[in-house]
């Protein structure tokens, strides 16, 4: 995640959430599996990715969502 954050600086921002505290945020977004990534666009969730993904696959998904 740190490497991708550096490579995609300017158009992608990564954040982490501890699902144990505060649990209401995890529940609000339906986080029941770990690892899970929710991709937001214009502050709205547009994609949910569950499980570990290879960097190449994650980059392709982000490019499609971004429309590039």
Q: Can you walk me through this structure?
A:
- The protein is α+β, with helices and mostly antiparallel strands.
- The protein has one domain: Glutaredoxin.
- Helix content is 35%, strand content 19%.
- The chain has helices at 2-7, 23-28, 55-66, and strands at 36-41, 44-50.
- The chain has a two-stranded antiparallel sheet with strand order 1-2.
- The longest helix is centred in the C-terminal third of the chain and has 12 residues, at 55-66.
- The chain is globular and about 35 Å long.
- The mean pLDDT is 88.
Low-confidence stretches: none
Q: What is the helix fraction of residues, given as a range?
A: 25-40%
CATH topology tier name: Glutaredoxin
Give the beta-strand count: 2
Looking across the biggest beta sheet, what order are the strands in? 1-2
CATH class annotation: Alpha Beta
Structural class: alpha+beta
Termini separation (Å)?
Answer: 20 Å
Total domain units? 1
Q: What order do the helices and strands follow?
A: HHEEH
Q: What is the overall shape?
A: globular
Count up the helices. 3
Taken as a percent bin, the fraction of beta residues is 15-25%
What's the CATH architecture name? Answer: 3-Layer(aba) Sandwich
